[in-house]
Amino acid sequence: VGSEMCIRDRHWTTNHVIEGTTNDAKGYIYLAVYNENAVAATAVYNDIYKKVNGDWRLVHRRVLIDRPSE
């Protein structure tokens, strides 16, 4: 590539929004995929977290891809 940067796709996420109890939590993150300076797709990660041995773990992630309006 040399001195030029080769940028094709970028995956951008927003801040995590998490709500829960002392051992279980649910959260979501919005995301956008950019391709050649344009938005190629948007989606939401819906996550489930659990506390295991004192540490939080992501135990499930569902990706909901937005459909373009017609």
Describe the structure.
With 70 residues, this protein is mostly beta strands. It has strands at 9-13, 17-20, 24-35, 38-52, 55-65. The chain is elongated and about 45 Å long.
Keywords:
70 residues; single chain; elongated; 5 strands
Question: What's the helix and strand layout?
Answer:
Elements: E1 9-13, E2 17-20, E3 24-35, E4 38-52, E5 55-65
Antiparallel strand pairs: 1-3, 2-3, 3-4, 4-5
**Rg, nearest Å:** 16 Å
Question: Structural class given helices, strands, pairing?
Answer: mainly beta
Low-confidence stretches: none
**Overall residue-averaged pLDDT value:** 87
Give the biggest sheet.
5 strands, antiparallel
Helix share, percent: under 10%
Give the CA-CA distance, first to last residue. 39 Å
Any idea what the shape is?
elongated
Please tally the β strands and state the result: 5
Order of helices and strands: EEEEE
Beta strand % = over 45%
Q: DSSP helix count?
A: 0
Question: Gist?
Answer:
With 70 residues, the chain is an all-beta fold.
